[in-house]
Structure formats: structure tokens, C-alpha cells
Fold this sequence. Notes:
The structure is a homodimer. Chain A is an alpha/beta fold. Chain A is built from 11 helices and 14 strands. In chain A, β1 (2-6), α1 (11-23) and β2 form a beta-alpha-beta unit. The longest helix of chain A has 20 residues, at 99-118.
Amino acid sequence: MHVLVTGAHGFLGSELCRTLLRDGLPGDEAGAPARPLTRLTRLLRPDGGASAALQADPRVRSVAGDAADGALLDTLVADGVDVVFALGGTLSSEAEADFARGLEVNLHGLLRLLEACRLRAHQPRLVYAGSIAAYGGPLPDTVDDLCRHTPQSSYGTQKAIAELLISDYSRRGHVDGRVLRLPVVIARPWPQPRPSVSDRVGALVREPLAGRDVVCPLEPDSWLPIVSMQSAVEALRALAGVPASAFEATRAMNLPSLSVQVRELVRTVQTLPAWRGWRRPLGQVSWEPDAALQAVVGGWPQRFDSELARRLGLVVDRSLPHLINRYINAHVESAAA
Amino acid sequence: MHVLVTGAHGFLGSELCRTLLRDGLPGDEAGAPARPLTRLTRLLRPDGGASAALQADPRVRSVAGDAADGALLDTLVADGVDVVFALGGTLSSEAEADFARGLEVNLHGLLRLLEACRLRAHQPRLVYAGSIAAYGGPLPDTVDDLCRHTPQSSYGTQKAIAELLISDYSRRGHVDGRVLRLPVVIARPWPQPRPSVSDRVGALVREPLAGRDVVCPLEPDSWLPIVSMQSAVEALRALAGVPASAFEATRAMNLPSLSVQVRELVRTVQTLPAWRGWRRPLGQVSWEPDAALQAVVGGWPQRFDSELARRLGLVVDRSLPHLINRYINAHVESAAA
């Protein structure tokens, strides 16, 4: 199997690449075992990003380029790709600050990728990282698969449009797509130079565990929908194994997620290491709510129900301690070992 | 006031042009009277379409061109336009039969129009003809403003995307947009060479009243959401007078409409002329349901509620006889007089 990952320099993208190289793709629809990767093409940022790690694997080919470059996407997709994981795009804060750039990458870039797939003889499977930012405006207490999209950001608008396009291209057989709406993914293991909203939440986990103090920009009683990076990667991988026949009116779904209060998230990060016998000092959290960030987070759905994801067998973290433990196992203890 | 109408060759577009030239735009937000048109630019099909009628009015300028031609749209919008009525685009059947053309006109053409508005110093108001085809898949009995979009056609997908784009451009102040989702509009007064789904429904009104027999391609008990051409035009015109402050999470809304069964529509057309004292013979209806058309119509919402349109004061036909009478007054008796 030949897999293409766009946005492979990101923290989800790089973890997905590692997982796919180790575990392959899920088994086929008849219950066969996982299918190993024979080739992995990684589309990285033009400057290459954090690309060194997997370069020793002979199956891996790294290409640096823009996720909106149609000619490049044509070439990559035409090269016998079986599955595309489309994670490339600008982040929420960037799409809001630079409208033209967000439109170019998140809308026109996706359209070029879909057209590259449509014009091939054999249509690849496409797994797309959507976002809960597609929701916005007045929302019910629990957002289920039937809830409308009235996004209140340009990023969310572009993500909602992506769902519509991928569902239509799939209905017509031009691609075999599926879209997973991701909540806040906990957490980037490395500090970012230009933190996104979700990284500002992620910092509440990453920084104290790295022994650094952190300012919490949200009210303690704010609700957040979160998922571990491992759950997000595993759900993206699992979606690549779902047969097209499992979908009906749409290819898009919510990833079920934990809904937690910021206070609870901070407390768990502060108390869990002691239970594990840690003696290292933890960074401390101080509180300075940021009204702009609070407004963005307050506009997100707080609780999700996703009948479709449940029916497809997507599973996520059992609890907040489970989620934090997964972060510690993957990024703190392994680094310390 | 300078108004641009794209798709002005269509039957809605041409009636809208006539209405605007006669009645102007709705009064301003402070309750001032209607504002007269000083200029009307009509964008017609490249072949000019049905363009002759209004050409004698010195306020009217007719331009023939493609609704997806970005350079042309730039020129037209830059020419001091106050309000754009965006009715140009491919029809449902065309967008489904020719995917690339539908995408080019209905998606890229709209994007070019929005970009032309964004890059101007003073952003125009934009009124866009949306469609109930944006709905599809499993739907509740009554479709209200909170219902999600899972369109089951490429046309519907493009219309749903248009709503998202126009809402986001408006939120950012790049344009002052509003989208009206139209149901089946009754009816084109002239027979079409390539009938659309909505014209095949319209023919059930037009043909018998013109003395011609017609084949009904739908089951007698099918439900249809319909509106008169006059109501649709008046609602589009009214939306141009609504202040931007009346909108919240979205700029899109359902036009409230009548829900009628095909049997009732046919019976009203057959009996209403006698009540008006007609002696002319009516065309007869024979029944030959077409499974493909039945599937399309069966996928539409059957009943609508639109709290937003109601709040904005949009009104439509009071009853089916009222709707049919409006058609007769406008297109049959006036032609016979």
C-alpha cells in the first residue's frame, strides 16, 4: 500500500506517519489483517519542517512543497497512491488573520487535491482532518450528527465546505472520502513558536509536565472537548479501513471526545504524576483569562454525540487520567528514559 | 442606486429586473420610502438570452458574458454597484450532468464575484438565490432553520457551499450578503428547450393554462414545496432592504413556502379558470411517473419553517389558489388582453 500524508510535518501528521509505518493500514472489509505500508510519501512544509525523524526508513519519501500547489498534488496523487491522509492546511488563527491565504490553502488547495483524485483512473481513499470549528453560533447542549454548520470563523467555514465537497466527490465516485471532525488534540509535545488556540490548551498539559510554568488563558470553569493525540491518530487510521458502503448521506462525522472543564484538566495534570511516583518538579499554572480566546472556545460545542462514529467503531480515551497518561507515556517518560 | 443582476436572462432574473425598474429598492432602515433605480446592469448569457424586453429603458445596460468570468465580474462590480442580485449559475440537471461546469460556474464563479466585492473600497450588498437542494438525505418532517445540510446532488452541494462562503464574507465585512433558499418557483411562462426539475413541475401549471396537454412525471400524492414567481421576486427584493444588523449566526434562510400534493396542484389548475369565468379549453394532464425525477423530488424537504425569514417580514402566497391566480394574472390574462 502506498500512502500519501499531507501536512506530515505537523504533530498529528508526524505521529500518523510513525503509526502507519509500524502498524500499516487496517485490514480489509472481509476481516483480513492489517495491510503493511510499502511506500509512504510525506508532503512537508516548503522549508521541510520537522522532517528528519523518519528519513532513515527506506519506504519513506519526503517532498517539501505547498499544500495548495496543484501541479505538485497532481504528481503525487498520480504516483499510484492508494490512500491520502489530507492533514495539510493553515491553522485557525492563520486563516482568520490572513483570509486570502486560508482560502488559498484550505479551500483551493483541497479542491486541487480532489481534482487530482477525480482525474485519475483509479480513485484513492481520502481521509481528511476536519474540525469542530465547523460548528458555531447558537448550538444545542449536545451536538450530534444532525446539527447544522454555522461556523463563526473563516477556518471553520473552510472546514465545513471541505465536508460538503468531500461528500459530493465521494457520492459521485470521484474519490472515496471520509472526514473526521477533530476537537482539541492533546497535545503537541514541542512548544510552538506561533501557538494556535488548540496549542494554548495543549500547553496546559505540556508545560507543567516539562517542569515549566504556564499561564492559563481560560476561565477555570470553561468546558473543552478534547481527545488524545493517540486517539485522533488511531481514528484517522481506522477510518481508512471503513468500507465505502458504511456511509449514507454524508462522509463527515464528529470524533466522540471527552468534555472536561479547564479546572479539571489542570488538576489532573498536577496530581497524576505523583500517583505514578514522579519526583520531578512540575511547572505551576497561573490564571489570566484572555477574552478573545475565551470567546473562541465558548463558541465551540461542549458536548458531542456521534452516532456515525460509534457505528463505525471509532473509540477514544476512556477518561481524562487515561488521556493524560497516554501523553506522559508517549512524550515524557519515553524522553526521560 | 445602481443594481447588478447576474442571470438576468432567466425567468426570475428578468421578472426581478422589471420589478426593480418599476418599484426600486426597499426603503432604508429608518423607514424611508423605496429608493429608485438609477442604473441597472444585467449580466445575460453569452448568447444574450431573452434580453430584448427591457432594452428601451435608458437606465438599463445589458452585458453578455459568462457568470464565471472573473475579469468581467471585477469590471461590473467595480463600476459603483450598490446591490448585486446573484442569480447566475447552472441549473440542477446541468450541474449533475457536467460536474466540472457546475463547479466552475456555481462555485468558482461565486468565489470570483465575492473576491470582486472584497477587493472594492465600498462593499456592496449581495442577494443570492439559494436552493432547497442544499438539503438532502434523511430529514425531519419539518425542515427549520436549524436543520443540517447533507445535499445529495452536486448542485445542492454548490448551493450549500455558497451559503457558508457568503456568511463568512459577510461576517468579515467583505460583502453584505444574504441568501434565500428557494423551493420550486411556479412557473416559467415560456416552455424551455431543456426542462429542469423545477420546470417539469412548472409545466403542470403552464401547459394546461396555455391549452396544451402535459404528462405529469410525478406520483399524484408526492409533496412539493412551491412558491409563486411573484413571491420569490418580492422576497429577493425585500432582502435587499434588510439591515445587516438583523442577521446573527448566518446570512442564509429558507423562504417559507406552500407544501402541496401534486394531485392538489393539478386539480387547482383544472378548476380555478372556471371560477374566473374562462371559456377557453384547458390542456389535459396524463400521469406517467418518472422514477428518477420522483427520487429527486422525494429527497427534498416537504415542509418548511423559517423563523428567520418570518422575523425579517418575508411573506409568500397565502394559498394554492392565490398562487395559481397570480400566475394567471401575470402570464395568461395579460397575454390574452
